[in-house]
Amino acid sequence: MPVTALLIDALNLVRRIYAAVPDGDTDALYQRTQAACQKMVRQHQATHVVMVWDGDNSHQWRQSLSPDYKAHRSPMPEPLATTLPNLKANLAKLGIHSLACDGIEADDVMATLCHKIERRGGRVILASTDKGFVQLHSDNVSQWHHFDQCWLDRDYFLDRFQMPPERMLEYWSLAGDSGNGIPGIAGIGAKTAHKLLSQHSIRALFTPGTVDGKLGQKLIEGHEQAQLSYKLAKLRTQLSLSASLTQFRVSAPTT
């Protein structure tokens, strides 16, 4: 049977559910999270499913490159952090297991799993609202927005960013991504980045003489910042993971 793997960005899902439940109602959190996961398994006819979490010190690699990376993010609410072990245990009883790797962000774990599954001929559904996963999109890799019940596909990115998915990394290298603390080049915003990329390749933009005047000077002076931003935004797909896909095969819930 062909593999259809559902990779769930765990905190992306759980924190949004937590924000919508009454304060301290862990039962509601468990029930809504379980219902969301089970619904996605059914919707996408998944053969494998895994909840992927950030590992301890997960931001350390990118923050070693840029201390501002995700530095402004609010910490996880303590009541949520306290209840996560029970939430994971309850999900495991339903056959929905968790994966976290020390020092690695969930996004990179998902990217590595995605790469391995696709290379072996499988199909991947990335369940997340995180636009950074666009760089993984392909004929066999799709992204699902559970809360809006829609695909984050080519049309979505063309409509929202006026940019094709395959050029989003280049776009962020120029304009940055304030939500993740990715700087981009000072003085170049979304409109300018879009205009530049619609006219030139990213390589040409950093060749002296391609762009005249002050803007051209900004590009030359900001080349290193653009390279850093690209590196921060790019997901890692070649990590060594101890997990095996067989661990995450969809099975009947345990009692």
UniProtKB/TrEMBL annotation:
Pfam families: 5_3_exonuc, 5_3_exonuc_N. Keywords: DNA-binding, Hydrolase, Nuclease. Residues 1-251 form the 5'-3' exonuclease domain. GO terms for molecular function: 5'-3' exonuclease activity; 5'-flap endonuclease activity; DNA binding. GO terms for biological process: DNA replication, Okazaki fragment processing. PANTHER family: 5'-3' EXONUCLEASE FAMILY PROTEIN, FLAP ENDONUCLEASE XNI. This is Protein Xni.
